Amino acid sequence: MHALIIGGGIGGLAAALALHRNGWQVRVLEQAPAFTEVGAGLSIQPNALRALESLGLGDRVRAHAVADAPVGIRRSDGPWLIRNDVDRITRRHGPWLTLHRADLLDVLLQALPSDALQSGVQVRQVRRDGTVIHADGTCTADVVVGADGLHSATRRSVWPDAAPPRYVGYTTWRMIVTARPVEGSVETWGRGARFGYAPLADGRVYCYAMANARQGTAVGLGGLRRRFAGWHDPIPEFLDAADPDAVLQHDTYELPDLDTFVAGRVALLGDAAHAMTPNLGQGAGQALEDAVVLARILEPARTGGAPVAEALRAYDRARRPRTQKIARRSRRLGEMAHRTSASLAFARDTALLMTPPSIIARSMTPVLNWTT
Fold first, then answer.
1. Quick one: DSSP state of residue 280?
2. Where does the pLDDT of residue 319 fall: very low under 50, low under 70, confident under 90, or very high at 90 and above?
3. 3 state SS for 110-150
4. Angle at which helices 46-54 and 283-302 pack, to 10 degrees?
């Protein structure tokens, strides 16, 4: 049977690989001229690592990554609000990794047959019956997987009445710097802004910042340095080391809940189905989970034991409640982190200081306890 995957990012390639390993003939259509990822880091949390292990990629991913369970959260002037017991949360949930997004994409690409990959193809329309119209013509498949991101052409075609992505009130910057080494992943919360950093395997540091802003507000590195100038070390040092041409800024969006991720022979996956804020670091992880579950649930359809549409409805039942629940949890965390009122920020910080590490470790369970 044939599967057509629209979108060659992490979720789309993982879906292609999962289906390929199960005996499907797969083809990936990517609109960009090449299969590439932007220069940013990525947290592979325990649930995402289990998905990669099930694809046979665990060791290859580890070769590019550094073990990096979250150390905790600091206040903008330096004191700890949460200091995680890293050994405890690793024993409880499993290992965390950090790596460059491009390295993960390369691992996925190398695991797929090259003739399954087609870049530079702009999809114009997708139909419920598995027909895809693109710039080079028309093709059909037994299953079409829309893994084409926040502004998914698949979703617009098959779900034309769905609400568009919504801006959540803050913008995000990402960069990779060469500066002092760091021992682990740390995030710092201020009033209406955050800054985080994590080590990469090659000794560089992945940094990100978020700040409340009007939609479409462009802020260069100079403005970013001024915004975080009074924050604790090493944040100013990281910003001083950043290359202005290598800082990525994107407004932060989420996708309102869809009533279903499937229609006919079409299924949505990853950001196309459930784009969420980055506050839990679960965007890529949920896409990887989607890919593994989709391939497993489609197996009876490949072997003639169930119609494709029936199998896809089972995928929707398996994935939509979990992903939408995690998206809501991520939204709430962002709302708490981006409080601008001095009194509300003080109350937030006090509550975090009073929360025992054991409670923090247990609170992660609903997100991280997924298994294949």
1. G
2. very high
3. HCCCHHHEEECCCEEEECCCCEEEECCEEEECCEEEECCCC
4. 30
Question: Among 292, 266, 289, 264, which residue's Cα sits nearest to residue 19?
Answer: 292
Instruction: Assign 37 a pLDDT band (cuts: 50, 70, 90).
Output: confident
Predicted confidence at residue 306, as pLDDT, reads 85
CA distance 75 to 350: 11
Q: Could you give the domains of the chain?
A: 2-69+97-165+257-335 (3.50.50.60)
Query: In this structure, what token pair is assigned to residue 5?
Result: 């995957």
From 289, 287, 318, 313, select the one nearest 301 (Cα to Cα).
313
Residue 181 tokens read as 């080494």
Share of the chain above pLDDT 70, in %: 100
Q: Find all residues with CB under 8 Å of 297, minimum gap 6, and list them.
A: 311, 312, 314, 315, 318
Amino acid residing at 142: D
Say if residue 343's pLDDT is above 90. Answer: yes
CB 301 within 8 A of CB 1: yes
CB 207 within 8 A of CB 175: yes
Residue found by looking up tokens 């550094």 in the block: 66
Of 148, 151, 160, give the one whose Cα is nearest residue 29.
Answer: 148
CA distances from 256 to 261, 290, 291 (A): 12, 18, 21
Task: Give the integer Cα–Cα distance in Å for 159 and 53.
Answer: 33
